[in-house]
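Recap slide: S-adenosyl methyltransferase, sequence and predicted structure.
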Amino acid sequence: MTEQGPSGVNTRIPNVARMYDYYLGGKDNFTADREAAEKVLAIVPEVRFSTRENRAFLGRSVRFMVNAGIRQFLDIGTGLPTLQNVHQVAQAIEPESRVAYVDNDPVVGVHGRAILARTENVTMVEGDLRRPQEILDQPAVRQLIDFDRPVGVMLLAIMHFISDKEDPMSIIQTLREAMAPGSYFVLSHVAIDARPAAAPGVEQVYSKASSPFISRTGAEISRFFEGFELEEPGVVNLPEWRPDPGSHVLYRGIGSYFLCGVGRRL
């Protein structure tokens, strides 16, 4: 029996946003997503741990930006709504904070708009990071985000789905040029340094999903911050970026598996 999804959504093809939802323990996924995710977990069991650390990094980076004076955020590749989204973290500190969420998955759009319908200063639009200028030009984004003022632009766990053929450096340059001085750029990206032998198997699973997985080293990921001044402690493993006081991290031998950083636009 074929599972039914929203109109126009093929539930038989694994979807990277729904796979991520499965890693986080969410319920917005289908059989094909779960089967593909389990294949990845068989190769790299720490993925489930790392996706949760990625959400924790989101919270810490947003709090850092709000405390630095940022009051507007552009979260591209937001994925399915879960606990502690950008607007929840930011508005808990500054209620007037504005957030534009962007994703190219119609399922994410449906869920996002339903959840955010009664939330002020927040919008959810469909857009593809591969065409960043179209995102920047969207009326709903422009209505909420004033690019003449500092903004926090967030690309969490999305750039490893952008191939070199799609010119990722140009994508980030387009976003950077639209950002006013004093803006922040937040990135997280899977690195293969610690587990290079696992990369081909993961790539094979994602080759049958909605987006391929692109293997990159830590050095390649660090290049994405060119044109930004890195905030301390630089490009590091997710749990190492400004951990909350008193927190204890269990690394489980991950090594340089999931890197992150925050850069400031000068």
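The chain has a mean pLDDT of 91.
The CA atoms of residues 101 and 234 lie 25 Å apart.
(End of recap.)
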